[in-house]
Amino acid sequence: MLRFWFKEFPQYPCDHTDYWRTRLISYALLVTTSYFLILTVINIVTFSDFYLALLDGTGLLFSLGIVAWFRATGNVTVTSWAVTIMVTALILLFIVTSQGYSHSLYWATLVPPFAFFLLGRTSGTGMSTFTFFICALVVFDQMETQQPAFFAFGSLLNVIEVSIAHILLFRFYEEARSSAYDTLAIRNVEILRLAETDKLTGLYNREKLESTLISLLSAVDEQPPLSVMLLDIDYFKKINDQYGHFEGDKVLRALAKKLKDLMREEDIVARWGGEEFVVICTDTSLEAAMQFAHRIREDIAKQVISEHALTVSVGVAQYVPSDTAESLLVRADVGLYEAKNKGRNSVIAA
Q1: Please, which residues bridge with residue 271 across strands?
Q2: How far apart are CA 20 and CA 17, in angstroms?
Q3: What is the DSSP letter of 197?
Q4: Kind of pairing, strands 347-349 and 312-318?
Q5: How is the chain split into domains, by residue range?
Q6: Backbone φ/ψ region at 130: left (φ over 0), alpha (ψ -120 to 50), beta
Q7: Which of 105, 170, 173 is nearest to 134 (CA)?
Q8: CB 80 within 8 A of CB 21
Q9: Residue 333 and residue 228: Cα distance in Å, rounded?
Q10: Is pTM beyond 0.85 here?
């Protein structure tokens, strides 16, 4: 039954700005339809008040009409106004008719939750202000006439019915808030991941690599040795020139995956730019980093990567107390430049 009532509109997916408005419209119409049906029966059977029964029956027909129209059109804006106006008008008509007695004024508190959520801040403020202005006039009239107030069974029903409606509405709002918060948290994680990731290779990008290295160096006096490698694909320009840049991108992605597979758990690998990659080797001396770099170079040279035989040149540097992140990378770059000049496919420490 509820699945039928809460129709899914393809034009309003869960990440659409109007998704929760469609849910509230369906939720509100379910509540109003149920309430008007129950109140119609109560006013006829319990109170024999056919005028109020007619009022509630009219509300029931309006609710069902809006349900049918909304399901057929999916027009959120018009339906939002229709629901809010219907609820507000019927509540005010009931309050004015009962002259504000029997706790009927309590019904006016339902208008702001509907109006603000469905119409927005400006229109919601206007609709709520108008509702409470009418309520103030009703109370002013009570003061002028000084009629005695009687608290009968109807007063109790009004308090119970409005309280239940508030609980249902705010239960819905909490669901919407919680869902929106969870969606925002997921998106923030995704945004952060995209901001730190090289789009082509899926490795950390240059900005993330630099920030990570700066963070590591800030505590290096309290940590074991730290070394970096700067790797460059030999003769990569020939691949781009001969096979095109799309093929070059395939090679970069394949090599990035290969590097990730070769890394130890504590290592950090990033794309530095073009065909260059940086590896941060924590808890690694220069000697150990050189041995690791040679293993990487040899492993790449032995295999065919994306249908190409590749070699890499590597510059290696270990942190010294006078280093900054930039100077450490510059020294690794000096080693890489020397490796290139000595025939490539080699590892040089700087």
Answers
A1: 277
A2: 7
A3: B
A4: parallel
A5: 1-193, 206-349
A6: alpha
A7: 105
A8: yes
A9: 10
A10: no
Angstrom distance (rounded) from CA 223 to CA 226: 8
Please report the beta strands in the chain, taking only residues with DSSP state E, as ranges in sequence order.
226-233, 268-273, 276-282, 304-305, 308-309, 312-318, 347-349
Does the pLDDT of residue 301 top 70, yes or no?
yes
pLDDT (tens digit per residue) in 174-205: 887 787 788 778 888 888 888 889 999 999 99
Amino acid letter, residue 278? V
141: tokens are 């009239």
Fold adopted by 206-349: Alpha-Beta Plaits (3.30.70)
CA distance 58 to 64: 10
Residue 343, class by beta-carbon neighbours within 10 Å (0-12 exposed, 13-18 middle, 19+ buried)? Answer: exposed
Q: Residues of the chain with pLDDT > 90: what percent?
A: 44
Judged by average pLDDT, the poorest of 120-134, 177-191, 260-274, 293-307 is 177-191
Q: Is the dihedral of CA 244, 247, 248, 249 positive or negative?
A: positive
> Which one-letter amino acid corresponds to residue 175?
E
Residues 6+ apart with CB under 8 A from 204: 196, 197, 198, 212, 268, 269, 270, 271
Residue 221, SS3 per DSSP: helix
Tokens in use for 146?
């000084």
- Joined together, the tokens standing for residue 46 give 């319990």
pLDDT tens, 328-340? 999 999 999 999 9
CB 313 within 8 A of CB 340: yes
